[in-house]
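Incident log, entry 3
Record: Lysophospholipid acyltransferase family protein (257 residues)
Problem: checksum mismatch between cached and fresh output.
Input:
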Amino acid sequence: MTDDVQAQSAEPGDAPVRPSWVYTLGRVVLAPLARTVYRPKMEGRENIPPKGAVIFASNHLSFIDSIVIPIAAAPRPVHFLAKSDYFTGRGLKGWFSRTFFTAVGAIPVDRGAGQAALDALDRQREILDTGAAVALHPEGTRSRDGRLYKGRTGVAYLALETGAPVVPIGLIGTDRVMPVGAKMPSLTERVTVRFGEPLDLSVHGPASSGKARRAATDEIMTAIHALSEQELAGVYNELPASNTLEKIRRALPHERR
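Fresh output:
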């Protein structure tokens, strides 16, 4: 296994995240370069805890959202989950993808529902247990119409389970920098990143309580809405069901993680 990914394994139970030379180089080179090129407007950076476990929870408008947050939060290291396909490609393209995502703090995981979703939660909890920071999108998938959708309870579960505070983030303009379907980001648009005050969600109860997870999630989404100023959708952001079984599953009462 190459040096740039040896500390970024996707398997639950692995050793704590340790910065590789590629990630260190990314923090030193990519973050300042991106801030120079895009000149992002950053508000509330004083709300970023300088150390200790923390969850950054933001709205989701573009593919680049998870990359913008680590850049805006630098020098604080921030990790986010990315599908494992970005780390397994071959040839020059595969090397570039693997190197880039490692440099910006991505952790490879198998994306999906069921056991894959539970494994992703376990991996994020392991990262938080080391005192590191993670970035997550409670909406789950990108908003294609610019509205803010209902949050899923996975972020709240992590916060209640680990005791980590949640810093809400409002991203504005990332959908113009890289709209859905775009191959490359625009160099003419600017992004605004608003960091809210850290939220202590422990008042809602234990992670084992569905009522506590839902209340904590709603508090997170209310804070994100105040920062992003998006129109509220009032529903979950879900892609069309791919088969009959999925349609039945969605029709049954269940908690959206």
